Amino acid sequence: MAKRPVEVRVHVAWPPFPIRVIFSRLDRNPLTMSTVSSSDSAPQQATTDPYFQQLFADRIGGAKYGKGTEIYKFEKIKRAKRKALSDHPERKLLDFGIGENDSMAAESVREVMSREIDLPENRGYADNGVIEFKEAAARLMQRRFGVTLDPVDQINHCIGSKPAYAMLPACFINPGDVTLMTVPGYPVAGTHTRFYGGEVYRLPLVKEHGFLPDLDSVPDEIYDRAKLLVLNYPNSPTGRTAPPEFYERVVALAKEKRFVVVQDAAHAMLTFDGPPRSFLQTPGAIDVGVEVHSMSKGYDMIGWRMGWVCGHRTIVSAFADVKDNSDSGQFIAIQKAAAAALDDDSIPQAINAKYRRRMTKLVEVLRGCGFDCEMPGGTYFLYTRAPSGTAAGETFAKAEDATRYLIEQNGIVTVPWDDAGAYLRFSVTYVADDEAAEDELMVETRQRLESAGLVF
Ligand SMILES: Cc1ncc(COP(=O)(O)O)c(C=O)c1O
User: Fold this and answer.
1) Residue 390 is part of which domain span?
2) Atom 3 of ligand 1 has which residue's CA nearest to it?
3) Tell me: the pLDDT tens digits for 242-256?
4) Who contacts 118 (Cβ-Cβ below 8 Å, separation ≥6)?
5) Helices 399-410 and 73-87 meet at what angle, rounded to 10?
6) Cα-to-centroid distance, 82 and ligand 1 (Å)
7) Three-class SS of residue 376?
8) For a disulfide at 257, which of 109, 223, 251, 289, Cβ 3.0-4.6 Å?
9) Sign of torsion over alpha carbons 325, 331, 332, 334
10) Strand, coil or helix: what is 128?
11) Which is nearest to 267 in space by CA: 382, 426, 379?
């Protein structure tokens, strides 16, 4: 059954950009129209804008591209860190803001890489990937999750999982179509949905609903247009994992409402409340979607850029077609090193153990300082309600205020999330050479938080 007729969407939403660009050139750049003619050196307009300022696509801001005054969250954090360091050069920043693994890839993986890099057969375009990697991914899916996949056409590599979220909307989204996305969350699929003229319907993740989206709250009008549901468990930033019953409900709903499920498994190996789980373990899941895996978090291979999309063969094939038109594949030596990593379960197990240990310590410290938090089900993020102020009379209207205060006054870096309540994200990817260094850092964190006198 087709979703809403495509023609209607075309008339409603497309082509808005070309029409607006034509008018905006006339409206915003009259000087260009009248004076730029014969000479390259003629003034194009009253400002110092290059001529192509008027040419930027509306999806990135049109002629206003690069002129926004809004300061983004991570830039604000950077500025607060600079201020904290200049106000208190003697005080070490305790950085719980970093969202990247703090260790290099395992030595065994780097050894494979150093061998493979010298082999002439690895030098060329990798296109949609080498079979060695696909087979290793298939073995992992079978061994760890009991999910049987054909490596040939049910698995395709990606250059890190981020580009997969940029490409999957290209497979499904026409103007006016909807992607259901959880917030807070990893936004890339939503951004690209909008790039294709689609809309994003936000599903808030709130504590009262166990940080699972309330799929029954989505209006039928939205389900009629929804083509993608993007999930992410273990969830970044909430740390929540999804129980099998939730996935079962998702599969049933996908069939009933006819949408495709994209499950982001970037943090799968960092599951603490049981063995790592896959959405594809759910009966019927293979009929409704794909799961996207990453080598970044669970294998300390963030910068290596490897991941894979797996699941329904037609969706994997559509993804591979879009990918083939976007890149020429990851360097084969990296694919082979990643395959070696996938065959060695001791690698993700050691990484899991390290972050689990660090998380356990952090939860204890934060609870002792008044935070209402518990051990997350997974990820290296602890997501906890932000303080509302300090006993000394400071008030925080938003998590962002609390973050700035903690950085500037206490030298403690967190990331604020204000999308669905005011929350702080503490990451346990801080740099510490050994367990003794971790313990020292925890002692210091406790002292500083106690002296902050936070109220909730
Ligand atoms: C939830 C989630 N999904 C996907 C990604 C992308 O990971 P990568 O592109 O390194 O595979 C990240 C990275 O931060 C993430 O946090």
Assistant:
1) 73-103+352-455
2) 266
3) 999 999 999 999 999
4) none
5) 20
6) 27
7) coil
8) 223
9) negative
10) coil
11) 379
